[in-house]
Amino acid sequence: MNAFIEVENVSYAVNGRTLIDSISVGFDPGEFVVIIGPNGAGKSTLLRLLSGELRPSSGRIAWSGEPVENFSPARLALRRAVMAQGASLAFPYPVHEVARQGLVVVGRRLPRAQADKIVARSLAVSGVQHLSHRNFQTLSGGEQQRARFARALCQLKTGQGRGCVCQALLLDEPTSSLDLEHQLALMRAARAIVATGVTVIAIVHDLNIAARFADRLIALADGRIVADGPATEVINEALMRNVFRAPVRVDHDSETGLPTILPRADVRSGDVHVHAFLERF
Hints:
Elements: E1 5-14, E2 17-27, E3 32-36, H1 43-51, E4 58-63, E5 66-67, H2 73-79, E6 80-83, H3 95-100, H4 112-125, H5 141-161, E7 168-172, H6 180-194, E8 199-203, H7 207-213, E9 216-221, E10 224-229, H8 231-234, H9 237-242, E11 248-252, E12 259-263, H10 272-279
Parallel strand pairs: 3-8, 3-9, 6-7, 7-8
Antiparallel strand pairs: 1-2, 1-4, 4-5, 9-10, 11-12
Helix pairs in contact: 4-5
């Protein structure tokens, strides 16, 4: 394996429970990879292992051939930016200060004017420049999500300015609280970032969105990779049935050939177990 990020036979267990089970996979520079899978499949755990936040119970993770545990927090901050799932803030920071937190480690020596420019541009790309002086805690969930995206962009841009050639942006459910307009906007921004050579690895639950933006999908189930490849190969009715336990039909777009996941018509009839439960009242 010779990739920018290498995962070799990695497992991760907590209290005797295996969350990641013998995974080997690589991520290349300038690649947009989306991790999919049901709840509890190990997606967020894998992302935290890739970021260096967690250490594997066994196996090896390396960035550009160097084991991730060799990196200091400051060196890791230059190489990768992470947008965690639903991170909260205890203090009433304005949105521009939330974004500026992306510069705390990597951009401490930046001239104020340059730092302000990075923050302003990140807010604009994330679509929250009009909320710059709003209290983060008063924002909707989707607005907070976009402010956290701006923070990750600030960190990423500063690392580029300090000469980091290979970088990664790790996104844990970045579209989970967003309306359709802003889901598409964030994913387009991620694709634009990939075009600069940055590796983007994201967890996305909307499989139709994932199929349209990702270069590659990795499907997880029970801590193991069950499929890895382009959306046209990974998404099929067998995967939906066996991994997601979902009654869906998989069609293909006539223009792009990409898969489209649709609920089957009979889902409107409801769940027989729910009907039986409600009849008892």
